[in-house]
Amino acid sequence: MAGKFDPQNAQNLMEIEKQFAVKAVEQAQTYWNLLEKVQPRELKLTQIDEEIFNHTKESFPELFENDNAKLIKLDEESLKSVEGKKRWRTFIAAYEKKVQEHNFGCLIRTDANDEYGEKSTIFVTRMQFYAIEIARNRLGLNEKAHEIAKEEAIKEAAKKEKDAKAAAKKKGGK
User: Of 71, 92, 144, 170, which has fewest CB within 10 angstroms of its CB?
Assistant: First the structure.
């Protein structure tokens, strides 16, 4: 019979890591699609957005200083420093029974004015993602991302239409 699972001493199995990475990427793509389709200020990510937003303001007031500078551009070092991890662990613990997969890994954009990219994305817990993105949405900090996502969708639709016409023309020409 297997003993109790200890995540602090668990070995990372490559297949499990891949599955987590795939799920994190799928979640990021879903969120980007939401940013494209829904005005960020109207976007509701959980049933308890208001509670999370207020708790974030209370627990991390520095994120809201200087015109929300630390919400707009995340500082990975402060998020993942010893002190930062301790503060976030306390914050996250409050949602253990309230938010499904509260501690699951997610990708987040380091700059609210940019899209997901190799150099502009970091890995955080789901509750960190919710805390930051709910605040960004409520404060109108994701408006630029919303516009970028809409522009990308228009370009993608035009490309698909062009490719479909080219394929139809090629098929009809044979």
Answer: 170
Looking at 38-142, list the stretches that DSSP marks H as alpha helix, in order from N- to C-terminal side. Answer: 49-59, 69-72, 76-80, 82-93, 126-138
- Distance in angstroms (rounded) separating the CA atoms of residues 114 and 72: 10
How many alpha carbons lie under 13 Å from residue 48 in its C-beta half-sphere? Answer: 14
Note whether 122 and 110 are within 8 A (CB). yes
> Is residue 169 helix, strand or coil?
helix
Q: Which residues is 121 bridged to in the sheet?
A: 109
Statement: residue 5 has pLDDT above 60 = no
Burial 73-96 (b: 16+ CB within 10 A, else e): ebeeeebeeeebeeebeebbeebe
Segment 148-174, tens digit of pLDDT: 999 998 998 888 888 888 888 888 765
Residue 141, C-beta contacts closer than 8 angstroms, at least 6 positions apart: 40, 68, 71, 72, 112, 135
CA distance 43 to 35: 8
Burial 125-155 (b: 16+ CB within 10 A, else e): bbbbbbbbbbbbbbbebbbbbbebbeeeeee
